[in-house]
Design goal:
Serine Threonine Protein Phosphatase 5, Tetratricopeptide repeat, single chain
């Protein structure tokens, strides 16, 4: 219809909406490249419509949404640089609308959402300071709205989101104290919202995420007991969520993550039996997800990680507990010379053997059996290279044959080669 009526803006607007819906369906199948084509088709339609009517706020808002969706697909494709460009364009349009309608709270809140998107792209590019600045701008907008209407649950929930994003970037910057404060501030808000509406699945999920984040930071800070309490709260909330929505795959997956976090903490504390139980619970939940839907790669990957966690604990449980005594360790370390090559070790052995022979009296040669004397090689009278050495009783050519040859020479008053002569004592 739009092609048959090219001047009808309504038809083209409906066409843009239709292409977005097709893109949504294809994106749900994981075919991001094809979905992006449909999204960009709708985007081009809206750009053309806005060019004909540049002051239309609805068209500006629609184009901002198209840029926002495009940026989200780029993020899913691992292209944060392109996403940053799309989010910047979306923010420019939304900011212009908000500036023209300063009393419209929804338009102001849209600016905060766009700032969050921009911060996500910057964070993915490891531009943490810029990301933190974008998150702070979003926080300022939401804090202003929450102060104006403190009973508005939407504004309060949005403020908790800002706290969470500020905490996330603080963790990446290794500012654990600052991150913990942000997480706890967000947790207070979410707990208050949850207590006011305890059956709301979204609020339960958000509160469990807050407890998990707090536990992770406490673990990094070395406060294991407090971290464990937070992980226990996370697990309890996700169990409630499964009771409210037994078929929710996301609820089961989040519960498996809670068990995995708890198991990792217990493993580092040395409580291997409890850690193993937690990891096995995580395996059971993820195995059920994979059995229910074999097409989801995310479930399969998470199941492999869960099995690996179980294997690590089993390996630790089966590892021997014996340890080398400290005194023995010191003696080993004292005698160890890691830089000494095998060639140098052999040279040192030869040198020590020569010194020993030089200190040994010659009559020792007479105590050797005649058969052994015949097996030893001798040197020619002119001191030339020895004939092919015969093998010793062990079947190996060793330094013993060489070091006894000069004794034979000394008995017969024959000069031995220079390298086999005993060192002369210093006068």
């Amino acid at each position: 219809m739009a092609r048959a009526n090219p001047d009808n803006a309504t038809y083209w607007r409906e066409t843009a909406i239709a292409t977005d819906r097709v893109g949504d369906a294809i994106r749900a199948q994981g075919r991001l490249a094809w979905a992006l084509r449909y999204y960009q088709t709708g985007l081009e339609i809206r750009k053309a419509l806005l060019k004909d009517d540049p002051d239309n706020k609805d068209l500006q808002g629609g184009l901002a949404i198209s840029y926002d969706i495009e940026g989200t697909v780029f993020i899913d494709q691992g292209q944060p640089d392109k996403a940053l460009d799309s989010y910047t364009k979306s923010l420019g349009l939304v900011q212009a609308i908000a500036d023209s309608q300063p009393k419209d709270s929804k338009r102001q809140y849209d600016v905060a959402v766009c700032q969050d998107r921009l911060g996500d792209a910057l964070k993915a590019l490891d531009r943490l300071e810029e990301a933190a600045e974008a998150y702070r701008k979003a926080y300022e907008v939401r804090a202003r709205l929450a102060n104006i209407d403190p009973d508005n649950a939407t504004w309060q929930h949005g403020l908790s989101i800002s706290y969470e994003r500020l905490a996330n970037v603080a963790v990446d910057q290794d500012k654990l104290d600052e991150a913990l404060k942000y997480y706890e501030d967000g947790l207070v808000i979410r707990k208050r919202l949850h207590d006011a509406n305890p059956e709301n699945a979204i609020l339960i999920h958000d509160l469990s995420i807050s407890y998990r984040h707090v536990g992770e930071v406490l673990k990094k800070k070395g406060e294991a007991e407090k971290a464990r309490a937070s992980f226990d709260e996370d697990i309890a909330l996700n169990k409630r969520l499964i009771l409210l929505a037994p078929r929710s795959a996301d609820a089961k997956y989040n519960l498996s993550i809670g068990y995995a976090r708890l198991g990792d903490l217990l493993k580092h504390q040395g409580e291997l039996n409890e850690a193993l139980d937690a990891f096995q619970n995580s395996v059971a939940l993820r195995q059920a997800l994979v059995d229910a839907d074999q097409t989801v790669t995310k479930w399969k990957r998470s199941l492999a990680i869960a099995y690996n966690n179980v294997g690590q604990v089993l390996k630790l449980k089966s590892a021997p507990t014996r340890r080398t005594p400290p005194s023995r360790e010191r003696s080993i370390c004292a005698n160890r010379s890691p830089r000494r090559s095998r060639k140098n070790q052999i040279a040192g052995t030869v040198s020590s053997l020569r010194m020993r022979r030089s200190e040994t009296s010659l009559p020792r040669r007479e105590t050797m059996p005649a058969s052994s004397q015949r097996r030893k090689r001798s040197w020619s009278s002119d001191g030339s290279s020895p004939r092919k050495a015969s093998r010793t009783a062990t079947g190996r050519r060793g330094f013993h044959s060489h070091t006894t040859s000069w004794l034979n020479c000394a008995k017969r008053e024959v000069t031995a080669p220079e390298r086999f002569r005993p060192a002369k004592e210093a006068s």
